[in-house]
Amino acid sequence: MRASLIQLDVDDSESPDARRTRAAALVRAQRGADLVVLPELWALGGFSYDAWSAGAEPLDGPTTEAMSAAARDTGCWLHAGSIVERDPDGPMFNTSLLFSPSGELAHTYRKIHRFGFDSGEAIAMGAGTELVTASTDVGVLGLATCYDLRFPELFRALLDAGTELFVIPAAWPARRREHWTLLARARAVEEQAFVLACNTAGTHGGVEQAGHSLVVDPWGAVLAEAGPGEEVLTVELDPAVVARTRREFPVLRDRLMGIQAPTPGTDRP
Length: 269
Description:
This protein is of the alpha/beta class. It has a single domain (2-250), classed as Carbon-nitrogen hydrolase (Nitrilase/N-carbamoyl-D-aminoacid amidohydrolase, 4-Layer Sandwich). Helices cover 26% and strands 26% of the residues. The chain has 7 helices and 14 strands. A 6-stranded mixed beta sheet has the order 5-4-3-2-1-14. Helix 1 (16-28) runs parallel beside helix 3. The longest helix is centred in the last third of the chain and has 15 residues, at 177-191.
């Protein structure tokens, strides 16, 4: 299986339409790949909060149109990163798009954990409520987005739903790059699964991006890692490694299920 992560340079000087055209060309250039991944909110910028409301789009909007055609022309599974989704009956959402090789929008995932605490995404976006996995001919994909990476319980739930490869688009800032690498490796080791983590490069909304997209195997080894600038990271993966790792080092079967917190006042004799 060949996977390509497109670490797209995103800055505020390029229009969303121009970036869609450029991203689609980069996807088409990956002909022969089985899975192609783009970053989070690449059309508008993950920290370009002021652009979100005007640039929000429905699921059948211009990004879906462009990425559907690119997936069909390339013949790959395309995780097209995420868009600012305008729900006609509700708030905006940070929504990931997964296209089949025929160009069909096969799955969407609304980001559950919103970053910003009391600002930015945390107040501008609605929170997703559903776990999403996708059964594909390259394995079972578990979908998560950027800040989700800090919440291991989400990944354990996706593991229980059958995930073999986690696909994580992001707009992760440079000042916390070490966390990005550490957490991606931790999630791979914990769940004994591949992690494909695709970040943005450049600067948007005044926030420098970390780049350093990476692919991690189920043992936590970094198979490939990008630098700080725009780059396409391509790696050959053997999906059978997941089952073999879980069989040879069966740590997951030793999980203690249903652990409950102690009742207050009962922790001492």
